[in-house]
Specification:
The structure is a homodimer.
Chain A: H1 7-20, E1 27-32, E2 35-41, H2 44-47, H3 54-66, E3 74-80, H4 84-93, E4 97-102, E5 127-129, H5 134-147
Parallel strand pairs in A: 3-4, 4-5
Antiparallel strand pairs in A: 1-2, 1-3
Helix pairs in contact in A: 3-4
Chain lengths: 149, 149
């Protein structure tokens, strides 16, 4: 079934909304069986909560919607490589697959930093597809920070 | 000023409440200038949210109370060594100091696992005082899991 729903495009649209709101532009979308479960964007600044990353908010919203305490049938699409906190949350909730836009050498925790999913203390490692739309995602972040310098 | 407030004792009392509620017994207390800011315990099971660790809940409650978007003047007392997700949240919120009860070789991320605060992608490392009441904390966890096996 092709519903025409493109999760990564939605994640980028959410990232652009974040930038317009003065937030670091990251968007996250959680999908099951090709259908939207939950989605959000960075809200650290507006909420005064530095843990309000797009992934954390989308994960909590997806858990509330699904009600099983796990996201084992779900995939996460996110415009930037998740950080250490979010990688931990992804493992805890047993997300099946993670698709991310740009690598984040400074703060990423999947293919950079602590590479959490390869560590023995990681109890669940999702499949990872990284570097999707690398240039688009990186450009969006560069533009955001350049305008603020 | 000695108010008689003992944060680690409160964290242990919260951990015991967690065990009584069928949750893995972990409690967390956040303190500023010797006074309670926020406290919580594990609520993963009741909330159906595997990210509802004591530390995450206490951190968000402290942020909501303080309103500055940072916990730089605050210290965290927690009965068990924080996991990777919680270590990430501690760094993001710039907590000043972390006091923890028992080390967690299986899931800890401070003195075990990814040792996040020693990594170059960690943007803020709190002071850490680990292994406080190691035996008490470890015993509480062993008892909890033994009763469920």
């Amino acid at each position: 079934m092709n519903t025409g729903f493109k999760p990564m495009e939605m994640a980028f649209a959410l990232a652009e909304q974040a930038a317009l709101a003065g937030e670091v532009p990251v968007g996250a979308v959680i999908v099951r069986d090709g259908a939207l479960v939950a989605a959000d964007r960075n809200r650290m600044r507006a909420s005064g909560d530095p843990t309000a990353h797009a992934e954390m908010l989308a994960i909590r919203a997806a858990l509330a919607k699904i009600g099983s305490g796990r996201l084992a049938q779900c995939d996460l699409y996110v415009t930037l490589e998740p950080c250490t906190m979010c990688a931990g949350a992804i493992a805890h909730t047993r997300l099946r697959r993670v698709y991310y836009g740009a690598e984040d050498p400074k703060g990423g925790a999947i293919d950079n930093g602590v590479r959490f999913f390869s560590q023995p203390t990681c109890h669940h490692a999702p499949e990872v597809v990284g570097g999707i739309a690398e240039e688009k995602a990186a450009q969006m972040l560069r533009k955001f920070f350049a305008e603020r310098r």
